[in-house]
Design goal:
single chain, four-stranded antiparallel β-sheet, three-stranded antiparallel β-sheet
Amino acid sequence: MVNSSQVTRVYRLKWWGWAFPLVCLAVGSYSTVGLMTGRLHPGRRFGMFSGVSLLVGGVVLTAAAFTTKLILTDDAIELRSIFQRNRLAVSEIRGRREIINATGLILSDSWKLEPKDSKARPMSISNSFTLDNVFSEWLDKLPDLDEQDES
């Protein structure tokens, strides 16, 4: 647990990180209620299944989007959501790498923090968070593993 007196910044998802889940929730709610009340013609069982699937998926994705946060302190970083909690102390971080997608392109503003302990889980930080200069300065203090590999 992060000590609240040490919290430097709490970062949330950008608007598009929660807009899609809300759309799924709205469409799923509309179609499920419409099918259950008879306002929408069910046609086949697929219609009811897809409406309920969108509703359930929308609820889960919306809950995830609104609970996901990146917590930065002077001595640690933590990624929290309803699906995961990953915390790395600065002293446990070997360094940072830029994330490269399957086609070999570097994703802008996306990093992977590698722990010193090979058994520990690395942390991926995507460009879906609204980050600032405080985060950039904190990140720049970590060793650049891509740069070290090039040397």
